[in-house]
Specification:
This protein starts with a helix and ends with a strand. Strand 4 (99-106) and strand 5 form a beta hairpin. It is 30% helix and 29% strand. It is built from nine helices and twelve strands. By secondary structure, the chain is an alpha+beta fold.
């Protein structure tokens, strides 16, 4: 079902996040819950100033962003109420009811939004990705690695920002958004990190990677090297530890 979920998300994402923090909780029943917190306070100020300078009033994404509720609300409900979408495909409805969004505030000022995919199975992640061939969810690829309820296998080649890069290259983005994204992306992505949490204690970790650190008996932290990811391959400093597979076994 084309452009059902993604037309909604693409306008909310706005393509200029100052920082992105995600958390993936791996549950005992082989599902995982992904939460993505996107801080856009400084980015929205830049976008607003550019809008004012160019007298552009449409297709910035700020209008839809301001409609987000402060409490977790399913994308299905948002699509029906904000986008007035006529959603009939049962598979799409099932997935959209498991994806939630909300706005985040600093006192009275909106600073960004959060996205949650609740207790997703591997099939759910695949189904979400197939809702549209033209758009991609800003899903942390780590959530889509092999997890069987006890063992997580991370393919470190997936430690990329390809989802963000693909969104930036999308032909349906307004010219103002695309221009702003290209000019500011390296400057405005102050940090992008992911925390991996397990309901059961970590028993062993096989493999090493410079960006992956064990923080406690139940968690790992991944801090992306933005200079590495956004620089040409010839300018990248080699990783000291860059195993292609990291295997985490829980009790």
């Amino acid at each position: 079902m084309k452009k059902v979920l993604f037309l909604l998300l693409i306008s909310f994402f706005a393509l200029q996040s100052c920082s992105v923090e995600s958390e993936v909780i791996f549950h005992k029943n082989s599902t995982s819950t992904t939460m993505i917190d996107i801080d856009m306070k400084d980015a929205m100020a830049v976008l607003k100033s550019r809008v004012a300078a160019t007298s552009q009033t449409q297709n910035t994404g700020l209008e839809d962003l301001g409609k987000l509720p402060k409490n977790w609300t399913s994308v299905y409900k948002l699509g029906k109420e904000i986008r007035k979408l006529d959603i009939k495909d049962p598979d799409s409805i099932k997935i959209m009811k498991k994806i939630f969004m909300k706005s985040n505030f600093d006192k009275e000022e909106m600073k960004g939004f959060a996205l949650k995919m609740d207790h997703f199975s591997q099939d759910d992640y695949q189904s979400a990705g197939k809702l549209s061939k033209n758009y991609q969810l800003p899903i942390d690829r780590l959530a889509m690695n092999s997890w069987d309820g006890k063992t997580l296998t991370i393919n470190t080649q997936e430690l990329t920002l390809n989802g963000i890069k693909n969104i930036l290259n999308n032909k349906d983005i307004s010219s103002l958004q695309a221009q702003t994204s290209v000019e500011y992306v390296k400057m405005m992505y102050k940090n992008i990190g992911t925390t991996l949490k397990f309901e059961k204690k970590i028993k062993s970790i096989t493999g090493k990677h410079d960006w992956i650190t064990k923080t406690d008996d139940y968690s790992l932290k991944i801090n992306y090297d933005l200079n590495y990811l956004f620089s040409p391959e010839k300018d990248r400093k080699p990783l000291l530890n860059g195993d292609e597979r990291i295997v985490i076994v829980t009790e």
